């Protein structure tokens, strides 16, 4: 395998890895956002229950404190993951640019090789044509004598 082919193959593999990492991070972000939404819904429901039932109010205070701490941790995790998603997007863009650079170099190399091959084939055909012309000329000269 030619060196540029290897670089293209490795770059594609790296690009696929980075795409997978980005996808995984985006899924994690979505899951955390869904958890946060469920937490907010649960807080609202429990708040309604506590508002209607006086005996639930003391327990709701402890529940609310714990859930707000959990919400804060979830929000921080979402912020952290969002930063990682942005970094992963940048890495993906860099990997894509690198792949394109190698693909363009390989395309250029392949085109040069193709042109060299065509020149070689044309030179061979020209030589055969010249030899055929010489033979015909020689045969005509020998036949005329």
TrEMBL record:
Key words, A-Z: Bacterial flagellum biogenesis, Bacterial flagellum protein export, Cell membrane, Chemotaxis, Coiled coil, Membrane, Protein transport, Transport
The keyword Transport is annotated on this UniProt entry: yes
Localization per record: Cell membrane
Signal peptide stretch: none
GO BP: bacterial-type flagellum organization; bacterial-type flagellum-dependent cell motility; chemotaxis; protein transport
InterPro entries, sorted: Flag_assembly_chemotaxis_eff, Flagell_FliJ
One cellular-component annotation, GO: plasma membrane
Top-level lineage group: Bacteria
Coiled-coil region list: 15-105
Primary localization: membrane
Residue ranges of the region described as Disordered: 107-145
Family: Belongs to the FliJ family.
Protein name: Flagellar FliJ protein
């Amino acid at each position: 395998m030619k060196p540029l082919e290897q670089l293209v193959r490795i770059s594609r593999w790296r690009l696929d890895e980075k795409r997978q990492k980005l996808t995984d991070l985006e899924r994690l972000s979505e899951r955390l956002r869904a958890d946060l939404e469920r937490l907010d819904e649960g807080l609202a429901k429990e708040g309604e229950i506590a508002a209607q039932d006086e005996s639930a109010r003391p327990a709701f205070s402890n529940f609310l404190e714990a859930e707000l701490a959990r919400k804060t941790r979830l929000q921080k995790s979402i912020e952290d993951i969002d930063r990682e998603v942005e970094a992963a997007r940048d890495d993906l863009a860099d990997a894509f640019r690198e792949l394109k650079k190698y693909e363009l170099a390989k395309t250029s190399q392949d085109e040069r090789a193709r042109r060299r091959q065509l020149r070689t084939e044309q030179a061979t055909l020209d030589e055969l044509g010249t030899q055929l012309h010489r033979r015909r000329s020689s045969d005509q000269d020998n036949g005329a004598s």
